[in-house]
Amino acid sequence: MNTRTALIGAGLVVVAVVLFVVLGGGSDSSSNSSSTTETAEVPTIVVNQQGEPVGGVADLTYKKGDRIHFEVEVPFEEEIHLHGYDVAKEVPKGGGTVTYDLPAEIEGVFEAELEGRGEQILELKVEP
Amino acid sequence: MSFIPFAHALAARQDLPVPAWLFAWAASIVLIVSFFALSAAWREPKFEDEHARSLGERLSAILLSLPAQILSGAIGVFLLGVAVYAGLEGTEAPDRNFALTFLFVTCWLGFPFFSAIFGDLFRPFNPWRAVGRTVGAGFGAIAGQRPAHLAYPERLGRWPAAVGLLAVVWLEVIYGASGGVAVGLDPHACAVAALFYSVYTLAMMAVFGTEEWCERGEVFSVYFGMFGRLGIFGSRDGRLQRRRPFSAATKWATVPGSAALVIASIASTSYDGASEGAFKDGIESLFHRLADTGMNLTTALRLTDTIFMLLTFAGVGLIYLLGVRGMRTVPGAPSFAKLRTGFAHTLIPIALAYLVAHYFSLFVFQEQAQFGYLLSDPLGNGHTDLFGTAGSGIDFKVLSANAIWYVQVGALVVGHVIGLMLAHDRALVYWPNYRRATASQYWMLAVMVAFTCFGLYLLSVANG
Lengths: 128, 464
Known about the structure:
The complex is a heterodimer of chains A (128) and B (464).
Chain A: H1 3-25, E1 37-39, E2 42-46, E3 58-63, E4 67-74, E5 78-82, E6 87-91, E7 96-103, E8 108-114, E9 119-127
Parallel strand pairs in A: 2-4, 3-9
Antiparallel strand pairs in A: 1-2, 4-7, 5-6, 5-8, 8-9
Chain B: H1 6-10, H2 20-40, E1 53-54, H3 57-63, H4 66-89, H5 98-107, H6 110-118, H7 122-125, H8 127-143, H9 159-175, H10 187-208, H11 210-216, H12 219-228, E2 233-236, E3 239-242, H13 258-274, H14 280-292, H15 297-328, H16 336-342, H17 348-370, H18 373-376, H19 401-430, H20 434-461
Antiparallel strand pairs in B: 1-3, 2-3
Helix pairs in contact in B: 2-19, 2-20, 4-5, 4-8, 4-10, 5-17, 6-12, 6-17, 8-10, 9-12, 9-13, 10-11, 13-15, 13-17, 14-15, 15-20, 17-19, 17-20, 19-20
């Protein structure tokens, strides 16, 4: 066996191992996940008096073409801003709940935040 | 507690992690290409000579004329002035202020991207060089002699630029991430930093000379110039030249500190990408430990990030030095120092690939803002509409997730191939014996595969 054959053979073995390990061992992590409080099937992000999302920053994943649908419950006056999709909703004085219901048409990772406080409350993923 | 890396402050859309199947295919292609390169590479150096051809006297006379130099320098000074003014007087919203996008996206990413194709594009527009040359010429006209400068310490080499590069990235991705406040780097701080840097740079130019400092210590000249060595255009003896791609890079790393600079480039991009994915848990863990000691939250976060950034720099440097150490074991090898310096330029394509992979989408999205609403309303306060585009936005649909993934992976694979080519070429210079040259490249191949696969891994866990 000459050097060239040995190199190509070694390369193919390594490639086979990589493919086996990565493809065989990898699991699809794209399933929908959420750290929100689920109420009547619509994920709800609850913000406490300190302006932080209860349970940490929520994590929602959709496929392109789905409908993005969630609610945000805030106990004080604020503006909720879903970046990328650029949708802002006002929470009135005394607090309240706002609903987001829109088509998932832009792929990527986006944040929703309490605009006034600059606090992130949601990481939204839209996959192809 | 919010972790808001720089990109989050500007770009409303982040990249999805590269899927496992694409990661596997890309890693496989990298390995196949690597082994093929070792088994079928050429036997004579191809890039050591630039094979430069003059572009024509008339074109050189126009583009390199004094009026053209004055005009391009004035444009650079003017744009820096606009950025500083916007930072000081404009809105504090990072995405609405001209300063951040212009300095950290248009310039910081645009000059490397385009210089890697066309040659060093920053040099004619360098505002500090323009001021330094103007002051030097004025001094000469008044005093009747050239200004006297201190001799630049040879051992210092490009170390000031390497340290400066880390400082710029630190300002960009760490200083702005103040604990619990989702602002990123604010435009005012950015403008103040630009002013401080201007004073520092002009002082260094006064001490060591404008061209000397631009060649060795001025961060942006050295950093952008490094990528410009990959490009096809350059100038020599007052003439514009077209040269073989990548060939000018072979003479770049002759100055001490060059290896540190390119390692700093790879490390800083790696850190920025890893802080949103691979390092996220580690950063949070150390941050909480420091915070539990009673340390101020902002200080704790910046200290944590700084530690991880320096560890990344050390890790990238260690991998490179291990490869160099390995090459040293091949009979007939030059000294360790010569190998360390002699192969540093082979990392430039890797550094560029990291930049493209991590910031390509940010560049495409933010340039829509740059040439849209930021150009018409630089201060971002809604009071001006210079070109009628103040109401424009960013079309995030212009790039699909698939398109971004393929560009990211393609950049890393292409960077890997070019790095291997340059390394093989240099090995043929140091080891005229082909078999020994090839043997030495097992080590550099391991280094390149490590960097490329690490880059792919970072993309696969980014924003995950």
